[in-house]
Write a structure and sequence with these properties.
536 residues; 3-stranded mixed β-sheet; alpha/beta; single chain; 14 strands; 14% strand
């Protein structure tokens, strides 16, 4: 049998459908100089840890210690814009690691959870990571969990997700990080391919993620982490990124387990189509070459990147991402590590909420068929027959079910099945129908368990009902013990069987079952999903 990850690039695939864009941003962007020797003054107390590039001093908390704003690559500014990441410059003295680095350039993102950029001012100088360790000492190296944030490849930051509780409760070392977003992370252009030794362009955000993984392997032992037991996990675009790294030949030996939450097998464009679109986008800026593009201020590029016709996503380039994810999984050309993946029961209701109620309008019974026809074209009548209004409490819930099944549930079930042919594969469905009630959003329909609602259960930041808190404890246990052993288990929690059984995670009960494909009408959604707009 041929080795994994050796097939040629796949045929051209269609672009993903985007129906709305993030709003424009007017913000001051900081470009930090790349210097040697001088570092911010460190606080007088706090634990100090050596890295390959210099010492860092963290902040000790009651249950966990945090090391924030550690550079894992040089700032990709100036001539480094749209180039692969390079190692950070070493420093002398002790670097203060009490403050996170700036998030990558992005527009503000208004979500039920707040602005996904997190603290700091968006900047091109943004390739920083954070490390969280339990305060309690351990004679043995701890499992390492590396989080990739979501945000549709256009917004978000690692710092938005505090890893302290997960580290302390799960007895693991947690790492999160920023990676280049939007046009700064995913512009493909013939000029960039010409200057690349590999003839590639785009996928700079993918390469940033790989640089962060290399940093973890090289440095995490000094923080008490086990470089031989690294779990890569992420949600939405972060979950998709986990699967991108699963199929990339450049990440061999870089991680040992994988967890993909609400994202994996979405269809990506080819490099050729991305370069064509990148050329057209550059011309819209009046640029015919790279010198012109690199001379543009970051804020001008950001404004232009918010055009409704611009699409920023990884591409199948034949080298970094040699295949579509589903094609790679089907042929066994991926890293054979245990994989845990799943979705929430009501993924699509987030898109419905932000498109309708939170935008000041409601989806009516008359508007539901029109919305389905606008999104699905000639497939609409078959879809409406399967998802009649009479089977749902409100038009919003009906449309939410269509989006959940077409964009998330069935695509994730397919990838779990493909992986099960080659490695240990586990699937879940998060089903706390009151997961978001604490936000008290002005919605005309039940929010249920929408996209992203499981994250705080995993990270241990929940303060809910006793049943919800117990579910969070069990989920945190499943995730961290999977990182520890490659098998999801938790104290006092039911056994989690392998795929094709799907573990339903709800406050009322945690139960396995095999009806997931029928429950989500997966025979109707047999084709791979494109990147959904709601991807966080």
């Amino acid at each position: 049998m041929p080795g994994p990850l050796t097939q040629p690039p796949v045929r051209n695939h269609r672009w993903p459908l985007w129906t709305r864009r993030l709003c424009a941003l007017s913000v001051a962007l900081l470009l930090s100089a790349v210097g040697l020797a001088a570092v911010p003054a460190a606080a007088a107390d706090g634990p100090t840890v050596p890295t390959r590039y210099g010492q860092v001093r963290g902040t000790a908390g009651e249950t966990a210690t945090s090391y924030l704003g550690i550079p894992y690559a040089a700032p990709p500014v100036g001539d480094g814009r749209w180039k692969p990441p390079s190692p950070p410059r070493p420093w002398t003295g002790v670097r203060d690691a009490a403050t996170p680095g700036n998030p990558c350039v992005q527009a503000p993102s208004s979500t039920p959870w707040g602005d996904l950029a997190g603290p700091g001012t968006p900047s091109e100088d943004c390739l920083y990571l954070n490390v969280y360790t339990p305060a309690k000492r351990s004679p043995a190296k701890r499992p390492v969990m590396v989080w990739i944030h979501g945000g549709g490849f256009t917004v978000g930051s690692g710092t938005f997700y505090d890893g302290a509780k997960l580290a302390a409760k799960g007895d693991v070392v947690v790492v999160n990080f920023n990676y280049r977003l939007g046009a700064f992370g995913y512009l493909a252009h013939p000029g960039l391919a010409e200057e690349s030794p590999l003839g590639l362009s785009g996928n700079y955000g993918v390469l940033d993620q790989q640089a962060a993984l290399r940093w973890v392997r090289q440095n995490i032992a000094a923080f008490g982490g086990d470089p031989g037991n690294v779990t890569l996990f992420g949600e939405s675009a972060g979950g998709g990124s986990v699967c991108h790294q699963l199929i990339s030949p450049r990440t061999v030996g870089q991680f040992d387990r994988a967890i993909a939450q609400s994202g994996c097998g979405f269809t990506l464009p080819t490099q050729a189509s991305q370069q064509n679109n990148g050329t057209a986008w550059a011309r819209s800026l009046g640029c015919a070459d790279l010198a012109c593009l690199r001379a543009k201020p970051a804020d001008e590029l950001l404004r232009a990147s918010l055009s409704p016709t611009a699409r920023w996503t990884p591409n199948v380039d034949g080298v970094i991402l040699p295949l579509q994810v589903t094609d790679a999984l089907a042929s066994g050309r991926f890293h054979r590590v245990p994989v845990l993946q799943g979705t929430t029961a009501d993924e699509g209701r987030l898109t419905v909420a932000t498109t309708y109620d939170l935008a000041g309008r409601q989806l009516t019974a008359e508007g539901y068929p029109a919305a389905v026809r606008a999104a699905y074209g000639d497939r609409a009548e078959a879809i409406l027959a399967r998802y009649p209004l009479s089977a749902h409490g409100t038009p919003a819930e009906a449309l939410g079910a269509v989006l959940t099944d077409s964009q998330f549930a069935c695509a994730q079930s397919r990838t779990a099945g493909l992986m099960a042919e080659h490695t240990r594969s586990y699937q879940y469905e998060f089903a706390d129908r009151h997961a978001m009630d604490h936000l008290n959003l002005p919605l005309s329909f039940p929010f249920g368990a929408p996209h992203g609602s499981e994250i705080r259960y995993v990270f241990g930041g929940l303060s809910g009902t006793p049943a919800q808190n117990a579910l969070s404890d069990r989920m945190l246990g499943y995730w961290t013990n999977f990182a520890r052993t490659g098998v999801p288990y938790a104290a006092g929690a039911p056994h989690w069987p392998r795929f094709p059984q799907v573990q339903t995670l709800a406050p009322e009960a945690i139960t396995p079952g095999t009806s997931f494909p029928e429950d989500h009408q997966c025979d109707l959604w047999s084709q791979g999903a494109s990147w959904p707009l709601a991807a966080r």
